[in-house]
Amino acid sequence: MKAVLWADVFQAALMFVCLFAVIVQGCLLLGGIRAVFDIADEGGRLFIPKFSFDLGAHYTFINIFAQGMIITMSSYGGGQCQVQRLMTVRNLKRSRIATFISIPMIVSFQLLCCVCGLVLYAYFRYCDPMSSNNTPIHSADQLMPYFISVTLGHLPGIPGLCICGIFSASLSTVSSAINSLASVATEDFIRPMFPKLNVTALHTKIMSLVFGIVCIALSFIIASLGHLIKMSVIIYGNLAGPNLAVFLLAACTTTANEGGVILGIVTSIILACCISFIPENKTDPFLPLSNECTSLEQTQLNTSFVSTFTSFQNYTKYSYSNATVTTFNATTTDEG
């Protein structure tokens, strides 16, 4: 488990490096972080979710707050991965310190991800690589790798480092999950079913291999269901609520029995799946994007930069707009 923890630390560092690289490069190309937020605001990308109790709507203030609270509490209080990590720490005091230290890191990581999304929108707002006729990418999950290859491809080693950061985001979760699944399967299934079997580290490694193969097989199924982030949030959200309820039930009462807990878990998962999949799609439509994929010149006001967009030829033989930052001392520039 310590090897998994150190791998998570290294992968987390790569993730932050990737996010900072994307944000810094995007700000340099677009004229600063303020310009990024101004462009996002003009495009209607900065808004507060509406207050609604409609269970069929995916993005409202109520369900975003409830989802964040339930998933976070379930992860920290009842998630096998997190609990197993905390149990490897020397004592309870150090576990609490590690938990409190992780909170600002997770919050900052989520905020950096949001800023990266704004940078991607600001850069591709005039030339959407997904909706054009000769699109080089076919999913929103490919936007960040495409942005990295386009804007950082001229820097040796940086694109590979950023791609490693993207893969680290998934590998850190997968490695911890497989390790936890192997431990749970060994302790809760193999030992009770085969009490005479001398369970060793080899059995745990075999279980890790089996769960790894299962995860690879499931990845092909999940990829065909739609956007990866959306499906992962839905699936994890359907399981996080019942999992948290079981732990709260165990902490708050002693009268519950095994049959009632199992019935409650099954019922809650069925209801959550009905809410997630059965209602009609009530999500807001995608906000409009432009496909004017020609040489563009963007004037920046009240800054010392002018972002000049020029065409370049990428690996798909399709021209998209790139940005080159040049220093300019005037506050307003008109270029033909």
From TrEMBL:
Keywords, sorted A to Z = Cell membrane, Ion transport, Membrane, Sodium, Sodium transport, Transmembrane, Transmembrane helix, Transport
Where, per UniProt, does this protein localize? Cell membrane
Q: How does it sit in the membrane?
A: Multi-pass membrane protein
Give TM regions: 12-37, 57-76, 97-124, 158-185, 206-227, 233-252, 259-278
The UniProt entry's GO CC annotations, sorted and at most eight, read: plasma membrane
Q: What InterPro entries is this protein classified in?
A: Na/Glc_symporter_sf, Na/solute_symporter, Sodium:Solute_Symporter_SSF
Family of this protein = Belongs to the sodium:solute symporter (SSF) (TC 2.A.21) family.
Q: What is this protein called?
A: Sodium-coupled monocarboxylate transporter 2 like protein
Q: Look up and give the organism this protein is from.
A: Argiope bruennichi (Wasp spider)
